[in-house]
Each structure stands twice: as structure tokens, then as C-alpha cells.
Design brief:
The complex is a heterodimer of chains A (112) and B (116). Helices cover 0% and strands 53% of the residues of chain A. Chain A starts with a strand and ends with a strand. Chain A contains no helices and 11 strands. With 112 residues, chain A is an all-beta fold. In chain A, strands 2, 4, 5, 6, 9, 10 and 11 form a 7-stranded mixed beta sheet that branches. A 4-stranded antiparallel beta sheet of chain A has the order 1-3-8-7, with no helix packed on it. Chain A has strands spanning 4-7, 10-13, 19-25, 31-38, 42-51, 54-57, 64-66, 76-78, 87-94, 101-103, 107-111. Chain B has strands at 4-7, 10-14, 19-25, 30-38, 44-51, 56-59, 62-67, 72-77, 86-94, 105-106, 110-115. With 116 residues, chain B is an all-beta fold. The termini of chain B are far apart. The chains are: A mainly beta (112), B mainly beta (116). At the A-B interface, β5, β9 and β10 of A face β4 and β5 of B.
Chain lengths: 112, 116
């Protein structure tokens, strides 16, 4: 079955560490997105990529970095510059045109 | 700036009841609106996608309507079941050509509890 796979499901980060969240899709979608979800704040866009080797900052990109070397993969790195990284991270993809969005199952990141 | 509001924030109903969830948005220039379901600790599952040219979409017991001119959408759930308990989110894709038309704007959701 086609879909989006996010890993790991749970991730723990020590202060000062960089961590990378994986997002892989086998839907042959062109566009991919990273959202952050915090209680009471809804979902906020971190980064998005419409094609391979191209990506743009979303509304809250500071402290995060991404790459898009392959169509299927859009990993998100949470750097030590992100002051409050504890959150639920969701990856999404979209075929293009007026198509809707497909989301992964999420990664819960906790700072310890 | 597009803002999306969902009312009520929480809703508790007995099993079998028909119910309506509301979503309003401030800018009517949209490409489409998508309803999602989120179970606790899980990702988002797409329920219905309504294009700006459409008035409604149906899937099983779910029916979503869109009134773009008034900035409103409703999600109607017929004959609710305990398995429908979840948070329901609506998201709007803006229709402007300035580069932001790929970004969804989400409401904060309605937490639905269906009691057996």
C-alpha cells in the first residue's frame, strides 16, 4: 500500500544535540511538507519542498533544516538552535495541482 | 492573513446522534478545503476534500459542505458511533498566486466524543 512512513515514532534528544526525523513516501508525490503540532496551537508549517533539490522555509523554520535529494525522501533535522523542540512532528505529501494532502503517522520528539 | 476557526472546540454526544462540526475561514480566496481526523497520538487521516468550485462531498456517513462566499464549511456525521471519537481538523489551502498557495492553514480542531 502506498503511504508516508515517518520514523522513529518516538525520539528523545539531549540538550545541544541535533536529531534527524525521517520521512519517506512511495506515492510518487512531488511536494512534501513538515508540520509541527503543539497542544492548543494547531499545526504550523516548518519547511516545504515542491520538487527535488528545492525547498522553502515555512512559518517557523528557525532551528530546523531539511534536504530533498530524492523525490521519496524529505528528512528534517532539529538543530541545537531550536529552543523548544518538544512537539509532535508530521510529514505530508501532495501529488500536485488541486490534490489533497496525505499525512504520515508522526514523530513525537522530547527533550530530556 | 487567513485564519481558520472551528466551533465547538469539544463536543460530546450519545451514540446514534447526527451531528455537525463547523469550520469558518476569513479569506474566501481558496483552492480547496480538506477535513481530517486525528486519533490521540496519531497522524492525520484525510476524510474529505472539497474544491472551491464544489458545494459538497460525501463519503459514507460523512458529508462536507462548502460555502466559499460566506467562508464556512460544515462536516455532517450521520448516526455517530463510538469509533468516531477523535479530533476533527479542517484545513484551507489559499488560492493566491504569491507563492503561499501550497501552505495549508489549519483550525485548532473539534474534539468529538461519542458515548455508547
Amino acid at each position: 500500500d502506498g503511504g508516508i512512513t515517518q520514523s522513529p515514532k518516538y525520539l528523545f534528544r539531549k540538550e545541544g544535540q541535533n536529531v534527524t526525523l525521517s520521512c519517506e513516501q512511495n506515492l510518487n508525490h512531488d511536494a512534501m511538507y513538515w508540520y509541527r503540532q503543539d497542544p492548543g496551537q494547531g499545526l504550523r508549517l516548518i519547511y516545504y519542498s515542491q520538487i527535488v533539490n528545492d525547498f522553502q522555509k515555512g512559518d517557523i523554520a528557525e532551528g530546523y533544516s531539511v534536504s530533498r535529494e530524492k523525490k521519496e525522501s524529505f528528512p528534517l533535522t532539529v538543530t541545537s538552535a531550536q529552543k523548544n523542540p518538544t512537539a509532535f512532528y508530521l510529514c505530508a505529501s501532495r501529488r500536485g495541482g488541486l490534490a489533497g494532502y496525505t499525512f504520515g503517522s508522526g514523530t513525537r520528539l522530547t527533550v530530556v | 492573513k487567513q485564519e481558520v476557526t472551528q466551533i465547538p472546540a469539544a463536543l460530546s454526544v450519545p451514540e446514534g446522534e447526527n451531528l455537525v462540526l463547523n469550520c469558518s475561514f476569513t479569506d474566501s480566496a481558496i483552492y480547496n478545503l480538506q477535513w481530517f481526523r486525528q486519533d490521540p497520538g496519531k497522524g492525520l487521516t484525510s476524510l474529505l476534500l472539497i474544491q472551491s468550485s464544489q458545494r459538497e462531498q460525501t463519503s459514507g456517513r460523512l458529508n462536507a459542505s462548502l460555502d466559499k462566499s460566506s467562508g464556512r464549511s460544515t462536516l455532517y456525521i450521520a448516526a455517530s458511533q463510538p469509533g468516531d471519537s477523535a479530533t476533527y481538523l479542517c484545513a484551507v489551502r489559499p488560492g493566491d498566486s504569491g507563492g503561499s498557495n501550497y501552505k495549508l492553514t489549519f483550525g485548532k480542531g473539534t474534539l468529538l466524543t461519542v458515548n455508547p
